[in-house]
Amino acid sequence: MSNGTYAKGLEGVIAAESSICKIDGANGKLYYRGYSIEDLVQNCSFEEVTYLLLYGALPTEQERSGFSQRMRAGRDLAPPILDMIRNFPKAAHPMQLLQSVIAYLSAYVEHVIQHGETCNCRNTLHQVVQLASVIATYQRFAEGGDYVKPRADLSHGANFLYMMHGEAPDALEGEIMDKCLLLHAEHGFNASTFTARVVASTLSTCYCSISSAIGSLFGSLHGGANERVIAMADKIGGKENVRAYLDNALSQKEKIMGMGHRVYKAMDPRAVVMEGFLKQLSEKKNDFHYYGILKEVQTVFRRVMEEKGKPIYPNVDFFSGAVYLLLGIPPILFTPIFAAARVSGWLAHILEQRSDNRIYRPKCLYVGPEARAFADIDKR
Ligand SMILES: CC(C)(COP(=O)(O)OP(=O)(O)OC[C@H]1O[C@@H](n2cnc3c(N)ncnc32)[C@H](O)[C@@H]1OP(=O)(O)O)[C@@H](O)C(=O)NCCC(=O)NCCS
Fold first, then answer.
1. Which of 48, 73, 179, 213 has the least C-beta neighbours within 10 A?
2. Which of 69-83, 112-126, 223-237 has the lowest mean pLDDT?
3. pLDDT given for residue 3 in this prediction
4. Can you give the pTM of this predicted structure?
């Protein structure tokens, strides 16, 4: 047992062993279960990557098809969930809805809290699948539409767009949406994943873990940078204003959204893929508004920071918001979509935690008063 080194925010502390995700921040590399993110994006669907994360190996054709059928069978929302979405306070953020839906869904499930293969959350999968359906339906209802039943012939990403817009996306848009989910599915011991594991370590249900993780992701220091990138681009307005905007923001010591990363000290490999998606969609729609501004921000910011000896690169959030906008997704849904993707990683970590569990119980450094005399109420 350690004699208790203090590390604020647990920075630098190794809190568990994990075989799910490797981030090579110095070289800008990301691997899920040993496979590079580039290979996975090129060759796999979100469903296959979910299988990989949960089972530790890529599926055979038979396993892929069985798993895919199970995931697709779980997409439809039950009437009580539809009522919940309809009746949820309109001013609430959809992350609050997601967190509540997961807790509600939990009541329908017989919880077998066991270890390894027999754990039922790998079988039910519906907390993984239903987040995307809930988000699509939230938006559908917000726009005054009716519930759109899922289609089992579409990928997870394409079906999400279908349920939201009421019409199936074309092949390119469906594929880009699916790959965006894949890119966000896992990223090591970030705050929400750690939250999920801490809750799992008490042998609570995976639903409790996931709703807690959603709460963690809701915080502005974790989710939401892509929303703020779009707000920044809107404030900039056009390419020609980039230089002045950056000079002003940096002189005020403001952080430029979507730039920099705690772990990556080279280009985030997910940002490279995202930029490709943004370029493809901008060309297809002949709409280069956000792409033009963001590329200019990237170029000018890089130049300014290199002059200061601080090379800072875009992270995954820099281009993702603009991709989502071109797919017809409003900014309020960006963080919920992050949750709908990351839920696969959360579940993989919950299972890993359970397979070799020890309840998390760090200590704190007490800095309060030493023992003192109790004062009666009339003497305080
Ligand atoms: C993610 C983040 C918190 C990492 O910060 P960090 O660990 O301090 O990053 P680094 O140590 O590499 O920073 C090196 C220097 O570049 C500066 N820097 C880093 N990111 C910057 C940004 N986005 N804008 C302006 N300056 C930045 C830091 O302030 C630091 O300057 P200093 O040496 O004068 O203190 C930070 O980059 C940030 O706030 N980015 C914007 C928010 C964002 O996009 N978040 C999503 C992350 S997925």
1. 73
2. 112-126
3. 63
4. 0.94
CB-based pocket (< 6 A), ligand 1: 225, 255-262, 310, 312, 315, 317
Distance 298 CA to ligand 1 centre (A): 14
Q: Which residues are annotated as catalytic?
A: 261, 317
Q: Does residue 112 register a pLDDT over 60?
A: no
Distance 260 CA to ligand 1 centre (A): 5
Domain ranges of the chain: 17-215+330-355, 225-326
pLDDT in tens, 242-300: 999 999 999 999 999 999 998 898 999 999 999 999 999 999 999 999 999 999 999 99
Residue 371 one-letter amino acid:
A
Cβ-contact 201, 217 below 8 angstroms: no
Structure-token pair, residue 23: 């981030």
Which residue has the least CA distance to atom 19 on ligand 1? 260
Q: How far is the CA of 254 from the centre of ligand 1 (A)?
A: 10
pLDDT > 70: what percent of the chain? 95
pLDDT of residue 126: 79
Candidate of 190, 259, 265 to mutate for ligand 1, largest count of ligand atoms within 8 Å of Cβ? 259
CATH topology of domain 17-215+330-355: Citrate Synthase; domain 1 (1.10.580)
CATH class of domain segment(s) 225-326: mainly alpha
Q: Are 201 and 360 in contact (CB under 8 A)?
A: yes
Q: Rounded to the nearest whole angstrom, what is the distance from the C-alpha of residue 30 to the centroid of ligand 1?
A: 20
- Parallel/antiparallel/unpaired status of strands 21-24 and 29-32: antiparallel
pLDDT tens across 328-360, in order?
Answer: 999 999 999 999 999 999 999 999 998 999 999
The closest-lying atom of ligand 1 relative to the alpha carbon of residue 259 is 23
